[in-house]
Amino acid sequence: MQFFIKRLLTALSREFPVFNLRLPDDLKGRLFRSAKANNRSQNAEYLHRLEKSFEQDEMTKLILEELRALRQEVAELRQSGESDTGSTE
């Protein structure tokens, strides 16, 4: 069984290059605790959090686009309301 796991890890290490990262001790501790709480390896926790950060970036962009569109609609409604009020006086 250990041979199979060792072989699998060797194959995976060829597929995914090693990436060394220096982390402050407090951040490393937080990641370690989070990985343990989520039943993930530290590597899986790093990957999960990186993926989530990119997803959040995309969601933030979409929300900002929606907000800009809503602001534009509000401005147009205010403008049309002001012109309607001005024409009835």
TrEMBL record:
Residues 13-57 form the Arc-like DNA binding domain. Gene3D superfamilies: Met repressor-like. It comes from the Bacteria. It holds the Pfam family Arc. Signal peptide: none annotated. This is Arc-like DNA binding domain-containing protein.
